[in-house]
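This protein record is not my work; I was only asked to verify it. Where you disagree with what is written, explain briefly why. This is what I was given:
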Amino acid sequence: MGTTVAVVSAIAAVLAALFAGSQAIAARQQARHSEAQLELAERVRKDQAQPYVYADIRPDEHDPQKIMFVVQNLGATVARHVRVSFDPPLTSVARPAFGEEVEVLHRPISALPPGRKLQWFFDLGFRIFQEPETPKRYTATITADGPFGAVDELTYVIDLNELRQADAAPPVPKRIADELQKARGALEKVASYQSQIAANSQHERAQAVPAQSRARPRPWPAARPRHRSAGR
C-alpha cells in the first residue's frame, strides 16, 4: 500500500513538473511574441513619423508640354540634409546647363517641410524624344535624415519613355478656366459692340431733330379782353 502511494505521488510530481515546464515555455513564447509586437509597433510608429522624400521627372500640371524636375516630401515630419542623385546625370536638351544650374543636384537640401514641393523646368517633351542620344532612363537615389536618424535609402528607375503614351491634355480645371476666359472675352466684345451701337443710334437721332424744334419756344400772345355791348 505504501509503495502504491509513493508511485502515485511520484507520477503526480512528474506531471506537475511537466505542466509547470509547459507553462513556463508558453510564458516565454508569449513574452517573446509580446516583445516582437512591441518592436513592430515601435518600428511602425517611427516609419510613420519619418519623412518620405521622392524625386520625379514628369509633365507640368498646367502645361503638359513642359517636363518638370520635382522633389517633394510626402511624409509627416521635416526631412533634413536631403540628397538627390541620378545615374546617369540628368541631361536636358532645352537647358544644356541644367545639371550645373540646379544646385540640389550638387549639395543637400537643408530642410524640406511636410508637403513642400520644389520643381524646376527640365525640358520640353517633344525635344527629349527628338534627340536619340539623350538618356531616357535614370536611376534616382534619395537619402535624408528624419527625427529618428537617417531614413532608409530610396532607389528606383525613372523611365521617360513612359511619357510617350501619357495623356498630354491639360487637367480639367485648367481647361474649364481657359473656356471661361474665352467666354468672358466674347461677352466683353458683345457688350462693347452693343454700347457702340447705342451711342451711334443716339447720335443719329440727335442729328435728325430739326433745328427749330431745338430752338427756345416763343411765348403765346396774351389774350385780349372782350368788351360787353351796351345793349346787354
Summary: The chain has a mean pLDDT of 80. Residues 14 and 20 are 10 Å apart (CA to CA). The two ends are 178 Å apart (CA to CA).
